[in-house]
Design a protein that fits this description.
Helix content is about 40%, strand content about 15%. It is an alpha+beta fold and about 120 residues long. It has two domains: about 1-55, no CATH class; about 55-120, Rossmann fold (3-Layer(aba) Sandwich), CATH 3.40.50.300. It is globular. The chain starts with a helix and ends with a strand.
Length: about 120
């Protein structure tokens, strides 16, 4: 994680790293190579390293694809936390239940053209 932080020109203390790992339920696997993590753990780790610098915009492509229902809920909670922290989160999903649970605004596209735009409730 320190390497990714260095890419963004920031440094993290051991405590800051552990806080992030705890927040993403990864502390127990902190010494495990990323390739050996479960898919859900890999996705949570990817979100950590891409948000280390507290970006104002986070783009996620199918963030919960391939996950079991528990893993999907965990990713949805992470997206909500990112939104609550003030970040704008743009994500793609084919899972309309996920969209309803997480999105404030929805754009539907067909062949590269926007065909619907609005609240997920509409």
């Amino acid at each position: 994680m320190k390497l990714f932080a260095a890419f963004y020109g920031i440094s993290l203390t051991k405590n800051e790293i552990e806080e992030k790992l705890v927040a993403f339920d990864l502390l127990q696997v902190k010494k495990t190579p990323a390739i050996k993590l479960s898919l859900g753990q890999q996705k949570r780790l990817a979100i950590i390293v891409t948000t280390l610098h507290a970006p104002k915009l986070v783009i996620l492509d199918e963030p919960s694809a391939g996950l079991d229902p528990r893993g999907q809920r965990e990713i949805q909670q992470i997206i909500k936390r990112l939104k609550d922290s003030g970040a704008a989160v743009l994500f793609s999903s084919h899972d309309m239940l996920e969209v309803m649970n997480v999105a404030d605004r929805v754009l539907m596209m067909h062949h590269g053209k926007i065909i619907a735009n609005g609240s997920p409730d509409s």
